[in-house]
Amino acid sequence: MEQRNDFPSKYPVSYPVIGAGGDTGSWRMFRPEIDKDKCIKCLFCWIYCPDGVIDRDNLQINYDFCKGCGICAKECPRNAINMIREE
Amino acid sequence: MKKLFDTGCHVVAQAVKCADVDMVAAYPITPQTSVVEEIAALTESGEMNCRFLPVEGEHSAMAACVAAAAVGARAFTATSSQGLLYMHEVLHMASGCRFPLVMVNVNRAVFAPWTLWADHSDSLSQRDTGWLQLYCCSLQEVFNTILQAYYIAERVRIPVMVNMDGFILSHCRMIVNMPDQEIIDKFLQRQPNGWIANPANPSAYACVTGADLYPGFREELFNDTKNADKIIVEAASVYRDLTGFWDGDLIDTYRCDDADTFIVTIGSMAAEARLSIDLLREQGVKTGLIKIRSFRPFPAAALSAVLPDGARVMVLDRNYGLGTEGGIVFSELKASLFNRAAKIEIANQIMGIGGSDVNYQMMADAVTSAWDIRR
Ligand code: SF4
Ligand code: SF4
Questions:
Q1: Residue partners of A44: CB distance under 8 A and separation at least 6
Q2: Could you tell me if B65 and B200 lie in one domain?
Q3: Range of the domain at B195
């Protein structure tokens, strides 16, 4: 990951950084919440999340960037993810 | 030095082989078809060490070349007419991404109505895509120019289109002298890559760019295409030093030294026009020929330097600049000489459209009738 800015400006190159897409958490109207009792840790939600905001190890959702799309809830084979309306 | 006696399309394939190209993606279209056939045959037989990708159309051909360049491969494609037009949006992508591709365009008139024969409306309609455009008037020049195109593209990081007239050059057999491979290898040493895709250091390329950054990239491309003239000149002179061949750099001139009247043209008409110059000279008209070899970048300064005050210039265009006063080369030349307008007369004759015959007599007549020169 070193040498990130080694290209002259003629090359439109960009490198991944956390939050490059902006404050996407503010878009959310429904918040996904995982019901740990129903969850079987299949990791479907982790792999389907388009924003990569679900932690692989502890299934914590980063609400700063979760945009509330609901894909995780749709794909969960155990219906373990509830979409709760934000206040 | 090896001698080759073959058609223009096969000479292109030999030049691509000599250029040690890694990957060719192409789709056949008349009159370019036998370029693709010959490269396919050479790769199939193992004579040419290169990946050949037969794609389903020209849009894909250019996209595949872009992808190859994105991992640092030396890539090539060839097309013609509608095929070039079909590539249009990917041409912008290639130049904007600064990929050093080389493409041969076998000039053919455009639809409609359908036709197969030469004029320059295909390539000239792509003039604002950011590709450099070089035009050739003999098969030796085609061979030399393909090699020079890689030299240029890999240094300025801008793709280069090498143009040759359909049938007149593509299907005509001429003797071509091929420099020894060691000399070509020396001329075409691999250059350091610009950006390439690297899984060890993941990056995204040419993503959505806002008004804060976009203008900078375009300005850089604008300046670099303009300044590519220096590298085109360098390529021609390094090539001459190594091989002895010279086809001009941005332009080529013939009997211009004491001339007051000039023919300016591009492509194969520049070969025939030499005979017009000789004819006009015999008739006492001090005529010289300027062949525009580089249409993009447009060689404004080089042209102006050749033309003395009081010069009469006949631009012979093999295209129509639809909605303008004449041909596209004519418009470009006039614009570039605007600040000398009081001192230079510029006239235009459009000829050779859709492969219609052009001979030296017609070109000489265009000059004598424009200025009412009595013979
Ligand atoms: S709602 Fe969408 S963004 Fe948020 S965790 Fe689920 S899949 Fe990811
Ligand atoms: S998809 Fe459902 S069951 Fe599978 S890990 Fe995610 S929350 Fe648990």
A1: A72, A75, A76, A77
A2: yes
A3: 2-243
> Which of A10, A12, A15 lies closest to B209 in CB terms?
A12
Distance B89 CA to ligand 1 centre (A): 35
Going from the C-alpha of B215 to that of each of A21, B73, B157, B296, B332, the distances in angstroms are 21, 28, 18, 21, 25
- When scoring B220, B222, B223, B227 by the number of chain A Cβ atoms within 10 A, the one with the most, hence best to mutate, is B220
Q: What is the pLDDT of residues B135-189, one digit of tens each?
A: 999 999 999 999 999 999 999 999 999 999 999 999 999 999 999 999 999 999 9
Q: List domains and CATH numbers for chain A.
A: 24-85 (3.30.70.20)
B249 φ, ψ (degrees, to nearest 5): -110, -90
The pLDDT assigned to B90 comes to: 98
| Cα-to-centroid distance, A65 and ligand 2 (Å) | 19
CB distance A9–B207 less than 8 Å?
Answer: no
Ramachandran area for residue B159 (φ above 0: left; ψ -120 to 50: alpha; else beta): beta
Cα Dmax for chain A: 53
Specify the pTM.
0.90
| Interval B311-367: pLDDT, tens | 999 999 999 999 999 999 999 999 999 999 999 999 999 999 999 999 999 999 999
Here the CATH number for the domain that contains residue B187 is: 3.40.50.970
Domain boundary residue among B243, B260, B288? B243
Q: How many folded domains does chain B comprise? A: 2
pLDDT beneath 50, residues of chain B: none
- Measured between CA atoms, the residue of chain B closest to residue A2 is B201
Is the ipTM higher than 0.85? The answer is: no
Which of A61, A75, A76 is the best mutation target for the ligand 1 pocket, counting ligand atoms within 8 Å of the beta carbon and taking the most? A61
Domain boundary among B243, B273, B292: B243
B301, B222: one domain: no
Token pair belonging to B237: 């002179």
Q: Does residue A2 carry a pLDDT above 50?
A: no
